[in-house]
TrEMBL record:
Residues 4-60 form the HTH lacI-type domain. SMART domains: HTH_LACI. Keywords: DNA-binding, Transcription, Transcription regulation. CDD domains: HTH_LacI, PBP1_LacI_sugar_binding-like. This is LacI family transcriptional regulator. InterPro entries: HTH_LacI, LacI/GalR-like_sensor, Lambda_DNA-bd_dom_sf, Peripla_BP_I. It holds the Pfam family LacI. It comes from the Bacteria. GO terms for molecular function: DNA-binding transcription factor activity; transcription cis-regulatory region binding.
Length: 322
């Protein structure tokens, strides 16, 4: 079925295409009565007319599109919240967010041939070829702490895990295990968090933590039972999904949480609040990070100084599991 054009709107409204263009583009300095303006808008809405993004870009000399490139990560509540908030903030400036889940099978240069964004937000580093292609196309690139400062990124993940140990140690736990993720796409996050647990245990003169990968699609019964038998009393899980698998494993192993085994996750996901028992977790400052990305996009567009990375700390949300 052919798409509705501005000519179709003009014909149905009984006005010229020029009038339709003036009205739908809010062209300043033209004399069109309010009644005619409303009639044209109503007709366009009734016909389902959508203006061409390409034509709008050509006419304005700029795009109103911001592309957010996600790495090959599993998505979840943290990424969802970041993107939702980023979309809301940029919408206030008339900008639209397009999310592109980057896969190695298709180069980003193919995307730039299809759309010409005003800016690109990268949640992971771009390759030199990708960065060069965007620069040649005049595309503004806005990065996160992961894309702009490797040390800062690793420290942020390290410190999340250190908070877990601090909380567990403050409640008297001496033997801590790490429930790691088995997803290879999250290896860099997992390594930094494991290092954070190890360093925090060493700083408190606790035994070195034991660690094992925990799939999120089944109870971690055998792993939890083995840990408990070796004297482990607390588990620092990679994230809330992994922590829920640990909770399910503890139930199947006949262990009481937190009396026999305390469990703490990361992310403060919705499921953490309704698990049995409710999950203690570390909440990341996602809204502050999303605000930072939005501010970075607007600063790049406006030609102003880029904001510094937010200093809002992560916090432990205490619930029944620890």
């Amino acid at each position: 079925m052919p798409s509705v054009t501005s000519a179709d709107v003009a014909r149905a409204a009984g006005v010229s295409r020029t009038t339709v263009s003036y009205v739908l583009n809010d062209t300043p300095g033209v004399s069109v009565s309010q009644a005619t303006r409303q009639h044209v808008r109503d007709t366009a809405a009734r016909l389902g007319y959508a203006p061409s993004a390409a034509a709008r870009t050509l006419r304005r000399g700029r795009s109103d599109l911001v592309v957010c490139v996600l790495p090959d990560w599993p998505t979840g509540p943290v990424v969802d919240l970041l993107l939702d908030h980023l979309t809301d903030v940029l919408a206030e400036r008339g900008l639209f967010v397009l999310v592109h889940h980057h896969r190695d099978s298709r180069a980003l240069t193919d995307l730039w041939r299809a759309v010409t964004p005003r800016a690109v937000v990268g949640l992971a580093p771009f390759t030199p070829d990708e960065a060069r292609a965007m620069a040649q196309a005049g595309i503004v690139v806005v990065g996160t702490v992961q894309t702009t400062d490797d040390d800062a990124f690793d420290r942020s993940q390290h410190d999340l895990a250190a908070l877990q140990v601090d909380h567990l140690a403050a409640r008297g736990h001496r033997r801590v295990a790490v429930a790691a993720t088995d997803d290879p796409r999250l290896a860099r996050f997992a390594q930094a968090r494991l290092a954070g647990v190890r360093d925090a245990c060493a700083a408190r003169s606790l035994p070195a933590p034991v660690s094992a990968p925990v799939p999120v699609d089944r109870p971690a019964t055998d792993v939890v039972r083995d840990w408990h038998e070796t004297g482990v009393t607390a588990v620092a899980a990679y994230n809330d999904e992994v922590a829920l698998a640990v909770l399910a494993g503890a139930r199947e192993a006949g262990l009481d949480v937190p009396a026999d085994l305390a469990v703490i996750g990361v992310d403060d996901s919705p499921a953490a609040r309704v698990s049995a028992p409710p999950l203690t977790t570390v909440a990341q400052p996602i809204l502050a990070q999303s605000d930072h990305l939005a501010a970075g996009v607007l600063a790049a567009i406006d030609g102003t100084a880029a904001p510094s990375w937010p200093a809002d700390p992560a916090v432990v949300v205490v619930r029944g599991s620890a």
